[in-house]
Design goal:
The protein contains 5 helices and 5 strands. The chain has helices spanning 13-25, 36-46, 62-71, 87-93, 106-117; strands spanning 6-9, 30-33, 50-54, 77-82, 98-101. Helix 2 (36-46) runs parallel beside helix 3 (62-71).
Length: 123
C-alpha cells in the first residue's frame, strides 16, 4: 500500500526541511511550500492527504490558506504546527484535525501524522 502524500507548509526553511526529511524517511511522499499561496498551488497539483500548516507566514498565512481551501471546496486534513502558546485555539479556528506546538518532538510528529493518515505504526 502506498503511503499518503503530505504537504509541509512553513516559512522557516530549516523546519520545513527537517519535517519533510523525517516524513520522507518514514516513507511518505512529501511536498513543501513556504507560504499559503505556494501551498494552494501544491494542493491543486499534488492533492495531499494531509497538510502540515504553519500559521504565521508571509504572503498568505495559515488562516487565509484555510479560508481559501474551503472557498474552493477542497476537503483537506490539516495539522497545525505553530510556536504560539494558543496552538489549540488556532487549530480550532480553522477546524484543523490536530495541532503540534513548536518545538515538537519528532516522535510526536510521526505518531500524529500516522494517526491522521491512517498509517499509525504498531497500531
Amino acid at each position: 500500500m502506498t503511503a499518503p502524500t503530505i504537504l509541509v507548509v512553513d516559512d522557516d526553511p530549516s523546519i520545513r526541511g527537517l519535517v519533510a526529511e523525517m516524513l520522507d524517511l518514514e516513507g511518505y511522499p512529501v511536498h513543501t511550500a513556504a507560504n499559503g499561496a505556494e501551498a494552494l498551488a501544491a494542493v491543486e497539483q499534488e492533492q495531499p492527504a494531509l497538510v502540515l500548516l504553519d500559521m504565521r507566514m508571509p504572503v498568505m498565512d495559515g488562516w487565509a490558506f484555510a479560508r481559501e481551501t474551503r472557498r474552493r471546496g477542497l476537503a483537506l486534513s490539516i495539522l497545525v504546527m505553530t510556536a504560539a502558546q494558543n496552538a489549540r485555539r488556532w487549530a480550532d479556528e480553522i477546524s484543523a484535525d490536530g495541532y503540534l506546538a513548536k518545538p515538537f518532538d519528532l516522535d510526536d510528529l510521526l505518531r500524529t501524522v500516522g494517526r491522521l493518515t491512517g498509517q499509525a505504526k504498531g497500531a
